[in-house]
Each structure stands twice: as C-alpha cells, then as structure tokens.
Specification:
The complex is a heterodimer. Chain A is an alpha/beta fold. Chain A contains 13 helices and 15 strands. A 7-stranded mixed beta sheet of chain A has the order 4-3-5-6-8-7-13, with helices on both faces. A 5-stranded mixed beta sheet of chain A has the order 10-12-11-14-15, sandwiched between helices. By secondary structure, chain B is an alpha+beta fold. Chain B contains 8 helices and 20 strands. In chain B, the strands form 5 sheets. In chain B, strands 9, 12, 15, 17, 18, 19 and 20 form a 7-stranded mixed beta sheet that branches. Chain B has a 5-stranded mixed beta sheet with strand order 7-2-4-5-16. A 4-stranded antiparallel beta sheet of chain B has the order 1-8-6-3, with no helix packed on it. Classes of the chains: A alpha/beta, B alpha+beta.
Chain lengths: ~325, ~400
C-alpha cells in the first residue's frame, strides 16, 4: 500500500498505516513502550491498525488481552505508574465506558491523590465516530465527555501527519493522554514526508485560512468541514478552518485570534449538541471574544437521537457538509 | 425637594457627561440660571435650572456619564426644611464607557437603544467611533447591524481619533448631525416647495433703517427672514411643533431654530425663543448673541432642544435655492437663498427687482403641499410689509 515518491520526499499511505508507523516507531524508540488491547496481536486490530506488528515485535510488546476493558486499562495504569510507557488500545470509545472508572477515577486522579508521588504516563488509543452503519451502541463520539476530565489530555488526530506524529509526543507526557481516531479516517490516503516524526500536541492548526467565518472542528468532521469551505469559496465566502487537534486542553489563543479576525464562528462536532465540546468552545468564544462577534455562534452537531442504523438516517444524524454550509449562510445572513 | 435631572437635549440623546458644576451645595439658584455644563455629542451644553431654590446636594460626580433623566442635584425650594441625613453620592458613572477598549474580553457597557439589533462587534465599533446605531440599516442575519455596516460609516469619518474634551467636538457633532439627518431622511416623508419672493421693499426698508443705526445695531436680512417665518408659523401651526410617537403636537410658542455654521465644519440650529414676539432689533441682538455663543460652543440646554421650526439661509454663500432636511422631531425647515436682482414683471412692465427663493421642506405626516403653499405665500406676504414685522 505504501508508495514512496522519491522526488517529493513523501510517501503515500493511509491513516491506518500512519498510526501503525507511529506505534512501530514508538516501540522501537523506547523499550518501555508496549501495546495492549483486544485483538491487537493475532487478529491485527479490529481496524487492522496493528496488522503485522505481533510478528515483527513479538508477544511481549504486542499483547492481546481478554475482553475486559476495566481490567487491562487498570493494568496499563499500574504499568505506567511502575515505570513503563504502555499504549492501551480500547477497541472503540463505545467500549471505553467499561474502563471509564479506571480512566476517570484512577488515571486522571493518581497524581493528585498521591500528592505528586505517582504519575500515570499512559496513552490510551481508541476508535470513535459514526458512519459505518454500526448502529446506536457502536457509533458514539464521546471524546467531548473525556475532554471534561481534568488530569488527562485528549487528542483527536485528523490528518495523516498527526496520526503519525501525536503518539510519541503523547508518550512523552507524564500524565494520561487519550487519542481518539475517527473510524472514517482509517482508509484515508494522503502524503506524508518520508522523515515525518513527532508533532506538538498542544496547538490547534489552521487547515485553511479565511476571512469571513471560523469553522472550529476536529477529527473526522475536519474533512467535511474543509469540503464545506471549498463549496462556500465558490460563492465568495472564505471560511477559516481550525482543526482543534487537542480537545483538552483547548488552544483558546488560536480560536480567539481567528474569531477576532472573522467575527463569526461555526463549530462542527460529531458529539450530541447538548453539553458537547461544541458547547464548551462556543462558551469560551462568548467569554473571551464576545465583542468581536458579528453573528450568533453556529453549531453543527449530531442530532440528539441514538445513532440510527439505516444509512440515510445515520447520515442525517451526524454533521454533513450541507449542514455546515447552511449554518454558515445563517451566520452571514445570506440566502 | 426638587430633583435637577440630566435633561434630554434632543431626541437622539441617551446620556451626557457632566463636565462642570457652576453651583455648589448651599448656592441659591433661580429658574433659568445655568447650573452645570454637560458634554454631549453636540458639544458642551449649559444646563439651566427649572427651579428656584437652594442647591441642597450634588448627586453626580464630575466626568460621570449618566443617562438622560438621572437626578444630578437636589434643589430645596424656599421654605422647605433642609434634609437632615444627606443622601449618598450616586455611584460614579452608571454608564461606564472605558476610555480604551481592549480588543478582548473588555467589559463594555453600551448605551445602545433597546430594540436595535446589532452584533457585539458592531456595537463596539460604533462606540469607538461615536456612531449612533439607530442611524444604520443592518445587512446581517435578520437585519442585524454587522461590523461591516458600521465600518462603512466609520471609514467615512476619521477613525481612532481621541475625543478631545474641548467645548466643541466637531467629530462628535458631525456624528450627531449625521444621526439626526439620517433619522430625518429615514423617517420623515419630506415634500419640497419653492416660492420666489420679490423682496425689493424689504431691502429698501433695511437700507433706510440701517442708515440711522450704529453699525453694531444694524439689522441683517436674516433677522427679517426669521421674523417672517416666525409670524407665519404662528398662523400655520402645522409647521410649528414636534412629531412624537406617531403624533404631531403643535407648539404653543414659536422658537425658531437658526442654522449656524461653525468654523471647521460644524453646524448647530439653536433656538431663538419666542421669535414671533420679539421686535426686529431685539431679535437681531438675540441672534448675534446666539451665533457668538454657538461658535464658542456655549449653547444653553433649552436652546438646543426647544426649536419648533428651523430657518436656514445660504444666500451669503451664493446659493440660490436651499433644500433643507428637517431636524427631527420638528416638522418643517424654511430655506432662504441669495437675494438676486432679476428682471421682474411688475404692473405690466419689466424692471429689476430683488428676488429670493424661499423653500419649505415639510413633513407629509403632518401637512401637505396645499398647506405648505399657503404657509410660503404667507411668508412672501409678510415680506412685502417689513415695517409691520
């Protein structure tokens, strides 16, 4: 699958392969790093992210676990406290709820509860999002919930570069970092510099500059948002697209600088609207950039229903390009 | 105990800044005495007391910006016992407008009239540029005023100039004029009539009259214009008064607003009170005083808000016909062009006569062209007999 383009110094690969490269690179850089999770070894990962890694790196470093999210997440926390640098893969955010107690009550609190005697340098990866007709129990986007929790960091790599680069930086962090990989991105193909490596995990990125409105989004919604920006550009509306990258902490400075320039904002978030990350971003804009605003802040979130199974209903339930375009026109007062 | 309140010095005034107290507690004031100076967009205005009595207490600190209607001082009328417990001084600046607005998260209280739909960014820009949002038509969602809408207006005026605390602030005055005129053109259905009046007799009369007068008492033709309009306005009440809340209220007195140009580009139209009752020489001296004070930036509160009809003349500048814009809430403005010698038919023969173009801009909600024609004709008739003015 990987194709090297010698002339431009880039390789073509999928998001899935970029994540795999990141895991392989991390395991090679530091022997304290290991990966564990359901079906990550023999099966090669539910989304085939870790295919081939067991053969390459061995069962000590690529560890299949029982179907017990709470158990192996707790084991990861213990290993991290004891000096290892584990990568725990929770198959999807839907199953992470079984490990929520470990994440919220243990991983996020140990440094605080132990008076800074212990830290949990743990990375937890999980898949998130709807779009594969997996129905109401397997299509959640709960990263906004996790972004509510002090004591952890929450990342949402939306690009191949970030899929490749965020993991190592996350492993260097002394505290737990959760990485959410949108399931619709795994097959995305893109170019990556041959020498691509770690990237920062604390800044939002402007993926498209614009002057008329700021789109604030992350993860799988980034590409729909960029499509909307391209559609709008044809009508003379220049949208600036911000990829949050980190959902906790939020890079307020980048958001506010953009809104101060465009004076309008639409937030695109696959989470349900009520109490969403979009709600948090909108509130921060009101708190910090109120006097720059020229229109009510728009939100394109998921409809407040259990995600439907039927494709057309599923598509209607989650953010789509047309909804982003419509929210933009409402903010601009255009027909 | 009477409350001396921040007066409304025009329909578009929301708040004023108290810049000078001319009295202190214990001073006696008479009705009509100037007790304070208030800075508004129109410049510094001297505020007169409506009561006679002793200033009991000053309630607002200097340089406080307070909304219209805020009590500024308590005046104890004669015979009233002094209050034993003094009231606390009102907290400074119920409307606090910070001098420098920082771009982010600065709390700014804006005196935007209720009902105006304007974005926060538009409000901030309007505040920084002293622009009245009610003068702007919004292009945003649901007709909201956006930043760009204000920017169009702001870019016309120099942006970012610090407001000098001078008696006359021409930038602010221009903004106020713009606001009033935009409101006028937006709300008042103007109609225009023009009437050519032979004023040869007037001119002749004026020359003879002035020959006997010392230079500083000589009459200007403008005084004749104003008097004729004042007398005509008394006879035609539909042109003299205020249009408020969808209703016209004729004014019991005739206070003629005199359009006065201010060096540097300002314009004010303070009232010449009871112009219909004044002799021409009194009217002339009052007008001199008014012009002088207006140009020095010391107009009285009653003069700024009282005018019931406006007279404007640009004849001195060579303009033949002046089409005015009604100053709301008034309902008429009469314009005088230059007096020019023209070939004129009088009694079947052509001869040179002095002719002036008199215009009326009337408010169609109150009057119509027929009444306007009669009103103009009355002015023309009055000008034929200057001795009776």
């Amino acid at each position: 699958m990987q194709q090297q383009n010698v002339q431009s110094g880039t390789i073509e690969l999928t998001y899935r392969e970029a994540v795999r490269e990141a895991i392989r690179d991390a395991l090679k850089r530091d022997e304290r790093v290991f990966l564990m999770g359901e079906d990550v070894g023999r099966y090669g990962g539910c989304y085939a992210v870790t295919k081939g890694l067991l053969a390459e790196l061995g069962p000590e470093r690529i560890r299949d676990t029982p179907l017990s999210e709470s158990g192996f997440t707790g084991a990861g926390i213990g290993a991290a406290m004891a000096g290892m640098r584990p990568i725990v893969e929770l198959m999807t955010v839907n199953f992470s709820l079984l490990a929520l107690d470990q994440i919220l009550n243990t991983a996020a609190t140990v440094r605080h509860m132990s008076g800074n005697q212990f830290g949990v340098p743990l990375v937890i990866r999980m898949a998130t999002g709807a779009g594969r007709q997996l129905a109401a129990q397997h299509s959640h986007s709960l990263e906004g919930w996790y972004a509510h929790i002090p004591g952890i960091k929450v990342l949402a790599p939306a690009t191949i570069e970030d899929a490749r680069g965020m993991l190592w930086t996350a492993l260097l962090d002394p505290d737990p970092v959760l990485i959410f990989e949108n399931i619709m991105l795994y097959n995305m193909i893109g170019a990556l510099a041959v020498d691509a490596g770690p990237v920062d995990i604390d800044k939002a990125a402007i993926r498209r500059p614009g002057r008329d409105i700021s789109f604030i989004t992350y993860g799988g919604s980034l590409w729909k948002t960029l499509d909307a920006a391209a559609t709008l550009a044809a009508e003379g509306i220049e949208a600036e697209v911000i990829d949050l990258r980190s959902l906790r902490p939020l890079d307020d400075a980048t958001i506010m600088a953009s809104v101060a320039k465009t004076r309008r904002a639409v937030i695109i978030d696959e989470g349900w609207r009520s109490g969403s990350l979009a709600a948090e971003v909108a509130t921060r804009i009101i708190e910090q950039a109120f006097w720059s605003l020229d229109a009510p802040i728009g939100r394109v979130c998921s409809e407040e229903v259990p995600t439907p199974y039927a494709r057309h209903l599923e598509n209607a339930a989650i953010p789509q390009t047309a909804k982003i375009v419509a929210a933009t026109k409402a903010a601009l007062g255009r027909p | 105990m009477a409350e001396f309140r921040m007066p409304s010095l025009g329909a578009d005034m929301e708040a004023g800044t108290l810049v000078e107290w001319l009295v202190k507690p214990g001073d006696w004031v008479k009705r009509g005495d100037i007790v304070a100076v208030v800075e508004t967009q129109k410049g510094a205005i001297e505020i007169e007391s409506f009561q006679t009595g002793q200033v009991e207490q000053v309630l607002v600190n200097l340089h406080s910006k307070v909304p219209v209607g805020t009590p500024l001082a308590l005046i104890r009328t004669e015979g009233e016992p002094s209050r034993l417990t003094p009231l606390p001084i009102a907290p400074a600046a119920p409307i606090s407008i910070p001098r420098a607005v920082t771009p982010r998260s600065a709390p700014v209280a804006l005196g935007t009239p209720p009902g105006v739909r304007a974005s926060p960014a538009a409000r901030r820009l309007a505040l920084e540029n002293s622009i009245d949002l009610t003068t702007i038509v919004g292009t945003g969602p649901a007709g909201a005023i956006t930043y760009a809408d204000v920017e169009r207006l702001a870019s016309a005026a120099p942006v970012g100039k610090k407001k000098p605390s001078a008696w006359l602030n021409l930038d602010a005055m221009r903004t106020a004029i713009g606001a009033a005129m935009a409101r006028s053109k937006r709300e008042i259905p103007h109609y225009y009539l023009e009437h050519q009046v032979d004023v040869s007799l007037c001119e002749q009369w004026l020359v003879e009259k002035n020959a006997k007068l010392p230079p500083d008492s000589r009459l200007l033709i403008a005084a004749v214009w104003i008097k004729s309009v004042a007398l005509a306005a008394r006879r035609f009440p539909a042109f003299n008064g205020f249009y408020h809340d969808n209703k016209f209220e004729p004014a019991p007195a005739v206070h003629v607003g005199v359009a006065i140009a201010i060096r540097g580009g300002g314009l004010a139209a303070p009232a010449l009170h009871d112009a219909d009752q004044l002799s021409l020489s009194d009217l002339m001296s009052r007008m001199r005083d008014l012009v002088q004070r207006t140009r020095a930036g010391r107009i009285r509160s009653s003069e700024i808000s009282d005018a019931t009809i406006t007279v404007s003349g640009l004849g001195e500048r060579g303009v033949e016909t002046l089409y005015g814009v009604i100053y709301p809430p008034q309902v008429a403005i009469v314009g005088f062009g230059k007096t020019a010698e023209r070939p004129w038919v009088v009694d079947g023969a052509i001869g040179p006569r002095s002719v002036v173009n008199v215009t009326l801009c009337g408010d169609h909600r109150v009057s119509d062209g027929h009444a306007g024609a009669l009103f103009l004709a009355e002015i023309g008739k009055l000008l034929q007999d200057p001795d009776k003015l």
